[in-house]
Amino acid sequence: MISAFFMGLIVGFSLIIAIGPQNAFVFRNGLMRNRIGMIVLFCAFSDAFLIIIGVCGVSVLFNPFSLHYGKWLFYLAALWLCAYGILRARSALYESEQYYVFSESLSDRYGLFIQLAIFTFLNPHVYLDTVVLIGAISTKFTGTSKIAFGLGATSASFVFFSLLGYGAAYVSRFIQDPKFLRNVDLGIAVVMFGLAIAFFVEGQSFEGA
Question: How far apart are CA 85 and CA 97, in angstroms?
């Protein structure tokens, strides 16, 4: 049972640690110390929800959906990532210095919630990683070992997002130069454009509808 938990923990970390739009969003808001708790909890619980679906075997129901609509999900994700990349590039190039002050932000929580939901549930890879892949690996376990594996995988999400968000907030206390966040925004924009191209190509080669 303990080995199953650590297996889930390792698998969870290996899948979630890759650079992606959601991680970049958490990191940036962590640097700005902007509603970190809400963002971390939303991301972690969303991952936990999808992992539970996969471990419980509901991934079988997901397969027909992915075959029919997977291509369009990739296209929508590419469009959103491109738009967010433009937004970050615009912020880095045109926003005032005051915008980049490292302090508690009063950003609209509903706007953040919507962005988080889009980054989380419009990303095709989140379903492949959590529902499909983790769900498939969980079939190697039974009973309490399967539950332990699922707990390990979900724990990885809670630990990772907490470290990412609050770690970025801690680092920001030692970096007060607004140019730093401008460079972060430019870096995020480049990553978003790269992911948008990758998602579009994946949509082109997707074998489904």
Answer: 20
pTM: 0.77
In which band, very low, low, confident or very high, does the pLDDT at 104 lie, cut at 50, 70 and 90?
very low
- 182: which residues sit within 8 A by CB, 6+ positions away? 91, 92, 100
Cα dihedral 98→100→106→108 (10° resolution): 110
Q: Which amino acid is residue 51, in one-letter code?
A: I
Picking from 175, 161, 205, 128, the residue whose alpha carbon sits closest to that of residue 37 is: 161
How many other C-beta atoms are found inside a 10 Å radius of the C-beta of residue 142?
10
Query: What burial letters (b/e) apply to 56-94, b meaning 16+ CB within 10 Å?
Result: eeebeebeeebeeebbebbbbbbebbbebbeebbebbee
Query: 167: which residues sit within 8 A by CB, 6+ positions away?
Result: 30
Going by C-alpha positions, the residue among 116, 139, 131 that lies closest to residue 70 is: 131
